[in-house]
Amino acid sequence: HVMRSLALATAFSDRGWTVGFAASKETFAVVSAFMQAPVERLALPAASALEPEAMAQQWPEGADVLIVDHYERGVAFERACQPWAKRIVVLDDFVTRDHAADILLNSATVTMDQYRNRVARACKLLLGPKYALVHPQFRISRTRALKSPRESRLQRVLVSFGQGDTANAVASALASLVTVHFDGIVTVVLGREIGRAHV
Description:
Radius of gyration: 19 Å
Number of strands: 8
Number of helices: 7
Oligomer: single chain
Largest sheet: 4 strands, parallel
Low-confidence stretches: 194-199
Helix content: 25-40%
């Protein structure tokens, strides 16, 4: 989810917005892309209950948009941020938490029924792959690839579904490659929590 946050930050920055990241010290230390991005940074306190107050102190003028991209934050955190943030956008992957968001984006889910009792009726749901957040460089590369002459034989495939694979999409993708008798090189990228799964 780090890369989608950076892609979104790039899109906002390119349009003249001031962007800030609030994350743990460990996240900033491990993800070098955060340190290279032209954004303000706030290292959050260890106690998650203190995070909303720390952000309000760092940015006392508030935020026009607070984007929450965290697997362990939900309705309590979002409600604590409401006095400070004009609009809350949640990037979700797993339909396991309730949210107090104005907008919720989940590019892996296509049915609104899953969120029926998890968000307020006024929450705008952006669901499905058409809302996937990718870095602009991927779009540029895709356009170039579609315009260039294609090789007669596909030789390499990259399979990656982000940090979580609740639908076991990696196994489905690999099974599909077996079905079509693909004999090229397959690279699979797994998140830490599913890295030990058998596919």
